[in-house]
Each structure stands twice: as C-alpha cells, then as structure tokens.
Amino acid sequence: MSHSEEKILAAVEAVVFDIDGTLCEYERSTATLLPLAFDRAGVEPFFSSQEYVERYETFLEDSDDVDDHREACFTDIAQEKGRDPETARAVARAYAAERDHTRIGWLDGAQELLDNLTGEYRLAAVTNGGPGMQSQKLETLGIDCFETVVHAGYDTAAKPDPEPFETALSAVNTDPEQAIYVGNSLQADVVGAHNAGISAAWIANGETTDPTPTPEYVLESPGDLLDMLCVSSQ
C-alpha cells in the first residue's frame, strides 16, 4: 500500500456500504430465478437475466417498489421484442412469487468486518434496493449497526448520483475526505462515490480485469478492508 493510500485510510471516520453483492448475496441468483419464473408463468423464455440487469437503473427512480420496478423492466423488454406486455407482467408476478428476500447469506468476511468496525467508525449504507426488500435482508442478517440506510432511487436520486452519498454523510456528520465507500459496482458505486468526493473500495468478487473507473482500493472480499483499516491504525 502506498503512503498516500495509508494517509487516506488513516483519516477515515465513516465507512459507507452498498448492500447487495457487497455484504450479502441471494442464495438463488437472478440467472437461476428467471427460468423458474418463466416456467411458473407458463411462458417460453424470451429474454435473459443480463437483459434484465442492463435495464435495472433505467427504471429505478420511476418505480414505487421492487415489484413495480421489475415489471417495468420486463414489459420494456417485451415491447422491444414485439411481445405482449401482459405476458411480461405475468412473468414478473411469477418472479416475485419465487423471490424470497430472506434467503440470503453473508459474503466472505462481511459479518466479521461489520462486527469489528461497529463502535470504531460511523457506519451507514447506500443501496439502490427498495426499502421493503432491503429491510428484510438487514433483519435476516441481524445488521443493526448502520446509523442510516439511504435507499437511492427511493429516498433520493439513484446511484451514481452524488445525492444519496451526500445524504448518508450528512446523517453521520462526516466530510467526504473522512469517509470511504465500499461497493461491488464500478458504475453505481465507484462512480457515485467519486461524484460525491468519497474514496472508493471496490469489491472485485472474482473479476480479474483492470477496473474502470479506477477505485482507490480493490478488495477481493469485504474482509480485506478490515486488514487495511487495521494496518492504517497501527
């Protein structure tokens, strides 16, 4: 670690987290669940999980909740492919019936990280997930250490807009240069953190390519941050 990187970490007073893909993940991924939804609805699959994911941010700010958001994504794909929007709505309802927001698990080292940071740093979360489903995840995992959880796209503009990051920092009374944001999305998390003037720690989750945009720190897993913060405090 360079001297400048150690200096940034030494100044950190608040750690702000993304939730999905950063602290936890579903037992059943989107790629696993979508075929089940098509089957449950009695519809021949006509789009992939990647096509769904690529539309995620497009409809985030105009959706009332996760089910409304999913339906908007599915119907948009259907219209693009010349399919009946009602068929897409049926698949969206089937997907909602299959998805269980309590069937989640910790990412490697995430629980230990939060346990060790609690009481030592101001902690907050900024997530593009809806309030209903995210509260279920936090309750399932027993996470109660966040002073605030900002639901971007619902409480504020969606990531990577700086507003949700600024809202979180305001809640923990911390300046951007005294915070670090931890997330797994280069476009939503790293860009968003940088837009708000916050250093970013990107969780690679097995990705081997050079990240663009470039985060200040690259973590293989959430637990790596604990070692870095401990080094900076010595």
TrEMBL record:
Write down the Gene3D superfamilies for this protein, in alphabetical order. Answer: HAD superfamily/HAD-like, Haloacid dehalogenase hydrolase-like domain
Kindly list the GO molecular function terms attached to this UniProt entry: hydrolase activity; metal ion binding
* EC primary class: hydrolase
Q: Where is the signal peptide?
A: none
Q: What is its EC number?
A: 3.1.3.-
GO biological process, any: small molecule metabolic process
Q: Which Pfam families match?
A: Hydrolase
Cite the entry's keywords alphabetically: Hydrolase, Magnesium, Metal-binding
Q: Which InterPro entries match?
A: HAD-like_hydrolase, HAD-like_sf, HAD-SF_hydro_IA, HAD_sf
Q: Which PANTHER family match?
A: GLYCERALDEHYDE 3-PHOSPHATE PHOSPHATASE, N-ACYLNEURAMINATE-9-PHOSPHATASE
> To which protein family does this belong?
Belongs to the HAD-like hydrolase superfamily.
Q: What is this protein called?
A: HAD family hydrolase
What is the scientific name of the source organism? Answer: Halovenus rubra
Q: What is the lineage of its organism?
A: Archaea, Methanobacteriati, Methanobacteriota, Stenosarchaea group, Halobacteria
